[in-house]
Write a structure and sequence with these properties.
Helices cover 0% and strands 51% of the residues. By secondary structure, it is an all-beta fold.
């Protein structure tokens, strides 16, 4: 079955960087758009970044444009989210997503 397993969350100070990883299995990874979502406390789920099957097409939420970079490694069924210049408002649980399939999420906390 489809499995998406995120890792890399944690605590970081404002202005810092953090990288998230998502290990995918159970499907033909290179055929699918992969997404990163996040949900802050009391807020709705937000699409943060998406990457096309070939890795060349990417889209970002306006709130993270220029600070976050999504990438993928089709040879190893991995998708990444590099987060730079983090802000307090980036604090959220971050989820790896493919269509109806979700990872368990990883907490990112930006705090001084």
């Amino acid at each position: 079955q489809v499995q998406l397993v995120e890792s890399g969350g944690g605590y970081v100070q404002p202005g810092g960087s953090l990288g998230l990883s998502c290990a995918a299995s159970g499907f033909t990874f290179s055929s699918y758009i992969m997404n990163w979502y996040r949900q802050a406390p009391g807020a709705e789920l937000e699409l943060v970044a998406a990457i096309g099957p070939d890795g060349f097409t990417t889209n970002y939420a306006h709130s993270v444009q220029g600070r976050f970079t999504v990438s993928r490694d089709n040879a190893n069924n991995m998708v990444y989210l590099q987060m730079n210049r983090l802000k307090f408002e980036d604090t959220a649980v971050y989820y790896c997503n493919k269509g109806v399939d979700w990872g368990q999420g990883t907490q990112v906390t930006v705090s001084s």
